[in-house]
Amino acid sequence: MIAIYPGSFDPITLGHLDIIERGAKLFEQVIVAVLCNPSKSPLFSVETRIEQIRESTQHLRNIEVDSFTGLTVEYAKSRQASVLLRGLRVLSDFEKELQMAHTNQTLWDGIETVFLATTKEYSFLSSSIVKEIAQFGGTIDHLVPENIARDIYVYYS
Ligand code: ADP
User: How remote is the CA of residue 22 from the centroid of ligand 1, in Å?
Assistant: First the structure.
């Protein structure tokens, strides 16, 4: 079974990586798909994010990194994927994620959304928190893969 793990990953955090590693044990292949969202102004370009995720997931055999635009279900169809992998942290995630899962079900009934609960030490962790800390000169080494910390320190230096 092929699963798509869609998201912004701006940047990828240890919370994302944890979901990817656990997803890789459950599915034959996990495609980490960076959403090109023209309405957001990201810290890193889509190309850079793809490179960053590739570097952070080098140790995993069944991971592919790609990008897409438009509807996630259409992208999933084009990749013969039947699962959307998503992570849940807190109650506010649940509301948003459930709405998205239900919407996607109405668009294509061939898709199932599978949620993995965050590992408890990452329940507070988001890409925005990482950017906020880094912007004010704080340490982020314990929150993101090594290559990402390096890129972010360069960005804010
Ligand atoms: P999006 O803009 O699609 O929410 P994100 O990159 O913020 O993109 O998140 C992608 C997915 O990863 C979402 O399902 C989100 O809930 C999940 N996620 C993000 N951070 C964590 C974390 N620390 N633990 C578990 N899941 C997470």
Answer: 14
